[in-house]
């Protein structure tokens, strides 16, 4: 399988490189970046996740791509987070499905990078993978991610659910589910 990489006006969505792992580990240990996740991650756990992302891209040609800026010409492999697609966990009530997700370093928040990369990921999902729909989900209290979901044309299904990996009384347990169909995406592209 060919490893796909995507390009936008300002970004590269690419395969993970060993140089990405340290920044990713620092992100996963940062309380501000991880505020909508159940816990901070150790460097070892972070590396396992990065390796898994890398392997899934190698195996499938797509996944949660490493994100880097085109503007940093001195360091073409700079890493600012990840954005992309992933098969959802089997325990989720809407599985099987493909989700879109992101996690950016806080230095790059508020600049439209998640939205720009997510739009490229949706284009790939619908034009290359020919998916009929893509989902996204997050904790009900995670308003920043929900705003990105809305900006990329997704709609709140109102099918809230409790994440199966969290106790129902956990502050992050209740999740929202957003969706976009290929038809909705095409209509948005045509308008």
UniProtKB/TrEMBL annotation:
PROSITE patterns: GNAT. Transmembrane segments: none annotated. Residues 11-183 form the N-acetyltransferase domain. Gene3D superfamilies: 3.40.630.30. InterPro entries: Acyl_CoA_acyltransferase (IPR016181), GNAT_dom (IPR000182), N-acetyltransferase (IPR051531). GO terms for molecular function: acyltransferase activity, transferring groups other than amino-acyl groups. Keywords: Transferase. This is GNAT family N-acetyltransferase.
């Amino acid at each position: 399988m060919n490893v796909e990489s995507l390009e936008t006006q300002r970004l590269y969505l690419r395969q993970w490189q060993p140089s990405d792992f340290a920044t990713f580990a620092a992100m996963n240990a940062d309380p501000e970046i991880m505020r909508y996740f159940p816990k901070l991650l150790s460097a070892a756990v972070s590396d396992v996740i990065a390796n898994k992302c890398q392997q899934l891209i190698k195996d499938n040609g797509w996944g949660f791509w490493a994100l880097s800026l085109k503007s940093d010409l001195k360091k073409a492999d700079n890493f600012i987070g990840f954005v992309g697609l992933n098969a959802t966990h089997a325990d989720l009530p809407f599985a099987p499905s493909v989700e879109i997700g992101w996690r950016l370093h806080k230095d790059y928040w508020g600049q439209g990078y998640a939205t720009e990369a997510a739009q490229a990921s949706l284009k790939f999902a619908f034009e290359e993978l020919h998916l009929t729909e893509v989902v996204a989900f997050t904790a009900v209290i995670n308003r920043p991610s929900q705003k990105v979901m809305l900006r990329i044309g997704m709609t709140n299904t109102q099918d809230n659910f409790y994440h199966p990996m969290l106790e129902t009384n956990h502050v992050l347990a209740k999740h929202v589910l957003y969706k976009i169909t290929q038809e909705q995406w095409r209509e948005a592209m045509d308008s």
